[in-house]
């Protein structure tokens, strides 16, 4: 509930900032007829609207698990990430079509200084939103919110590109504005590829390898754990769940084995941020027989003799 509230607050505040930025830029677009600024405005508006599916996902994630959705509704956040990707793709197509049309039918850009000022405002607004979303997304473990923040940062860079178009227009180079519009489209496509990778990994139950390494180290440090077997982890919304197999001494009683499993579960939660639940399966390791013990002693003696030589 607390992490969802943080996500919702971030979304609504960033939505307000981006909406104000887009409205300001749209007014300058009407005055100047700048296709580069139009592409940037469309991108800002699309970025603001992506807050809606993310907010719905955070609200759904608060619902308790049911007999049909036994893991809860956290995966709605990953579906919202798909909506973010689709929005970026649609805005890239619109920006590209508009820029190509302007290349084929050049028009003079007016109020160049207003275009430059709107570009600076767009850059500052998007960078502030990007930092806010990325910081919150990393804190609560939301890949969709981080992807949306990266999207906003790319918007800020494209706003700077609009300055180049304004400069070219001021010098009388009419194709500068639509060329910058095409550059903005390329940046959008780069952001799209990055977001597809991140959201796709979550949908395929992928996790960062560093999280798996941290989980294994935590399990190996538990008293009574002799070996770590299969370890599976996945994100459900912005929370992690894990399943692990550990080997213990076969001479332990059921109660003792259960205590080792509980200690292993707590160790996992301490080692891995955002891990909310872990299932630990205990496998009993058969005690070594007389022959195995004799072979182990002989091998140890041979190693000592080799070291003395």
UniProtKB/TrEMBL annotation:
Annotated Cation efflux protein transmembrane domain residues: 11-204
Localization in the cell: Membrane
Q: Which Pfam families match?
A: Cation_efflux, ZT_dimer
> Which residue ranges does UniProt annotate as crossing the membrane?
42-60, 80-100, 112-129, 150-173, 179-196
Alphabetic keyword roster = Membrane, Transmembrane, Transmembrane helix, Transport
Protein topology in the membrane = Multi-pass membrane protein
Q: Which domain of life is it from?
A: Bacteria
Please state every residue range assigned to the domain named Cation efflux protein cytoplasmic.
212-284
Family statement: Belongs to the cation diffusion facilitator (CDF) transporter (TC 2.A.4) family.
Under which name does UniProt file this protein? Cation diffusion facilitator family transporter
- Tell me what organism the protein belongs to: Kitasatospora arboriphila
């Amino acid at each position: 509930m607390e992490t969802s509230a943080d996500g919702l607050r971030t979304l609504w505040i960033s939505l307000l900032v981006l909406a104000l930025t887009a409205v300001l830029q749209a007014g300058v677009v009407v005055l100047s007829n700048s296709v580069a600024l139009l592409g940037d405005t469309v991108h800002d508006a699309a970025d603001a609207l992506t807050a809606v599916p993310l907010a719905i996902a955070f609200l759904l994630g608060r619902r308790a698990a049911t007999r049909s959705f036994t893991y809860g509704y956290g995966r709605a956040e990953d579906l919202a990430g798909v909506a973010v990707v689709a929005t970026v793709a649609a805005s890239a197509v619109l920006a590209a079509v508009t820029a190509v049309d302007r290349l084929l039918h050049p028009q003079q850009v007016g109020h160049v200084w207003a275009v430059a000022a709107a570009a600076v405002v767009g850059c500052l607004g998007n960078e502030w939103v990007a930092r806010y979303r990325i910081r919150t997304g990393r804190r609560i473990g939301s890949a969709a919110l981080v992807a949306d923040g990266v999207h906003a940062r790319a918007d800020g860079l494209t706003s700077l590109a609009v300055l180049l178009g304004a400069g070219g227009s001021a010098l009388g180079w009419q194709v500068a504005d639509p060329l910058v519009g095409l550059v903005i489209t390329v940046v959008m496509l780069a952001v799209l590829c990055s977001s597809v990778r991140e959201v796709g990994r979550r949908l395929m139950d992928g996790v960062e390898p560093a999280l798996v390494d941290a989980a294994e180290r935590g399990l190996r440090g538990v008293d009574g754990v002799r070996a770590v077997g299969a370890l599976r982890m996945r994100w459900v919304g912005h929370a992690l769940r894990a399943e692990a197999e550990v080997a213990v001494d076969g001479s332990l009683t059921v109660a003792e084995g259960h205590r080792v499993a509980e200690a292993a579960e707590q160790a996992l939660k301490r080692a891995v941020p955002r891990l909310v639940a872990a299932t630990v399966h205990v496998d009993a390791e058969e005690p070594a027989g007389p022959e195995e013990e004799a072979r182990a002693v002989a091998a140890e003696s041979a190693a000592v003799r080799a070291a003395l030589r």
